[in-house]
Amino acid sequence: MSEPVTWNKKDLLGLEYLSAQEIAFILDTADSFKEVTTREIKKVPALRGKTVVNLFYEPSTRTRISFELAAKRLSADVINIAAETSSIKKGETLIDTGRNIEALKADIIVMRHNYSGAANMLARHLNISVVNAGDGWHEHPTQALLDIFTLREKLGNIEGRSVTIVGDIAHSRVARSNIWGLTKLGAKVTVCAPRMLIPVGIEAMGVSVTNNIDEALKEADAVNVLRMQFERDEQGAFPKQMEYFKKFGITEERLRRAKPELIVMHPGPINRGIEMSSEVADCPQSVILDQVTNGIAVRMAALFLVSQARDIKNEDPH
Amino acid sequence: MKILIKSGRVIDPANNVDDIRDILIDNTRIARVGKGLNNGADKTIDAAGKIVMPGLIDMHVHLREPGREDKETIATGTQAALHGGVTTVLAMPNTIPAIDSAENARLIASIIRDTARIQVLVCGAITKGRLGEELVDLARLKKEGIAAISDDGSSVDSPDILFKAMKKARELRIPVICHCEDKTMSAGGVMNLGANSTRLGLRGISNESEYKRVQRDLSIAQRTKCSVHIAHISCAESVEIVAKAKKKGVKVTCETAPHYFSLTEEAVLDYDTNKKMNPPLRTAGDRDAVRQGLADGVIDVIASDHAPHTVAEKEIEFDRAEFGVTGLETEFGVSATYLVHTGLLDWAGLCRKMALNPARILGIDKGTLSAGSDADIVIVDPDAEWAVKIADFASKSRNSCFLNERLKGKVIKTIYRGTVAYSAD
């Protein structure tokens, strides 16, 4: 028997920093919380008396709501701070903002930030827990965890499976977190995008790269279709929307050439007719809404585990 | 006042000396160097087991005054220099205002006169406001005692303006220091471009943005026959380009900074902003090429690029943090640890890179221990190990990329113009 897996990290910053066992442990914990979300009374007292602060430096509706619901179902008190305009402009540093939240005796900061590494920096300076809800282009660990959770639910296992990620890989934290998580669990990952949206040296993360979507789909058990954020194309790297759909859009025709049981995922919100056709978004293989539902269980697991790790650390006399 | 430095291992490559000698200082100058000197000193320093070298000359520092006295002043920066064994610095002109006129040159000269604890030479700007558009009046700056010119922090983008600047500088015999960076390629970048910038989700700065500009500046130097010095070389291609230019007879010298031969981009993996500088830390291959360049003599000078910043400018998100690290207080220890104790350079070699060559490039009569020269001397313990601690910094800032690192080779005493200006014990 191997050592029993325990969780001892006060923060969840990215899947790069977790072992395969730790990732599986979060997913297993999420399994038990998913059962809670199917009950009539969808609430457990696991975080009663704890305070979760959602500190969002970037506008986000779905991730914020998902974290808020997750915290509430664990009976935590929740405060939402939309910080994108307030503190930065007044000149307060992120660390000072974090220290103030810590001084208010909050237990967990869930942070979305537009700069890569912001969560790492905050966690280094605070004793309370930090859960990364997306930092720049770097990581979005709970999104990848819910993607992998959904895949595991549908496929039974991850090891040996082929997963293709399509879209703006260069600027995607969802892509990076999925790549770390999936490769650690033994999946084969292919990324597919126009050349300009494949970042330098991505192969070093253990993925195959292609610019041909049909090739990328041929062997895939699942395809994770990223949102194309045309509004953020600062360097003019994006193709035109129609051209993108023609070359990379997931259509029923393309699905017909892929494995019949290919799972279609999307982190949302979908641009129908750009990343995928409406028919594909709504097809039986699409698990997009399951992902949303699973997001709550996965985030409950994340909040619960980091909080527990911190309690254990605080009790430790050393 | 006569001071006798007794029984130290004297390293003085200008005079081909590496031997146990005594040095007699008479007031501000070195009176004699020899064996068994004994005559009538007021004070004797026992340097047995220590190395005695010319005071270090750091030809790339940012002292921030005038304009950003919250980061550093000429007083605190030169005190930091003394801690690091440095007795002469060349202060870069990116002050506020920039050193781009006779008036501003006089302003900084008066602060230096009143507050500097070592010799501070001033580097003037190449263009007004360092904006790359309008040439400064070089002849007038020269009259005010400017030792070199550079738009440091910026490269002169227009080849035409740089050509004119180099032509004029050659006439006036002023060295031109080039910060080589093509900002159309590097803009927005915060670390080395490659697999690690991809992994971290940070925008990258390519080697190309540096070496293409080195290449361009050297071709203009060749056409104008001007003496140029390339600042802070960080990548393999730049080393190679300079080596080729030297072979062709271009009057070029170059420098690197201690972090480029000791650290790699891996140091940035936890988003430590004290490892953020421009040019950025590169790959192990680049670091090795810089080491080889130092060993081969392609790289003439080690300079710190001392760039102090406040906590509020550094302890923030990686993208938003200022570029630059302090270095005056660690450059000797880092160089001893990574170059001498590894066998890449001997002590005489290190002395050339950190004293003799900068003196020659700047055309000053320093960097040696010849009788009659200024008694600028550093005594170091070659084998003493020490840890870099914030509490020990004399600099106003603490953004060192070597914090808590253990180094081997320690400055024990710094003598400036015959006075013991710093003593570690």
Describe this structure in words.
The complex is a heterodimer of chains A (318) and B (425). With 318 residues, chain A is an alpha/beta fold. Chain A folds into two domains: 15-140 and 293-315, Aspartate/ornithine carbamoyltransferase (Rossmann fold), CATH 3.40.50; 141-287, Aspartate/ornithine carbamoyltransferase (Rossmann fold). Chain A has helices spanning 20-37, 62-73, 86-90, 94-103, 118-125, 141-155, 173-184, 213-218, 241-248, 252-257, 278-281, 288-315; strands at residues 51-56, 77-82, 108-113, 129-135, 162-166, 188-192, 208-210, 222-225, 263-265. In chain A, helix 1 packs across helix 6, helix 1 crosses helix 12 and helix 4 (94-103) crosses helix 5 (118-125). The longest helix of chain A is centred in the last third of the chain and has 28 residues, at 288-315. Chain A starts with 19 loop residues before the first helix and ends with a helix. Chain B has 425 residues and is α/β, with parallel strands linked by helices. Chain B has a single domain (55-362), classed as Metal-dependent hydrolases (TIM Barrel). Chain B contains 13 helices and 18 strands. Chain B has helices spanning 74-83, 102-115, 138-143, 159-172, 183-186, 195-200, 207-224, 236-248, 258-262, 284-296, 311-314, 331-340, 347-362, and strands at 2-12, 17-26, 29-34, 43-46, 51-54, 56-61, 86-91, 119-124, 148-149, 176-178, 191-192, 204-205, 228-230, 252-256, 301-302, 377-387, 406-416, 419-423. In chain B, strands 1, 2, 3, 4, 5, 16, 17 and 18 form an eight-stranded mixed beta sheet that branches. In chain B, a hairpin with a 2-residue loop joins strand 17 and strand 18 (419-423). In chain B, helix 7 runs parallel beside helix 8 (236-248). Chain B is globular. In chain B, 60% of the residues are buried. The mean pLDDT of chain B is 97. At the A-B interface, helix 5 of A face helix 6 of B.
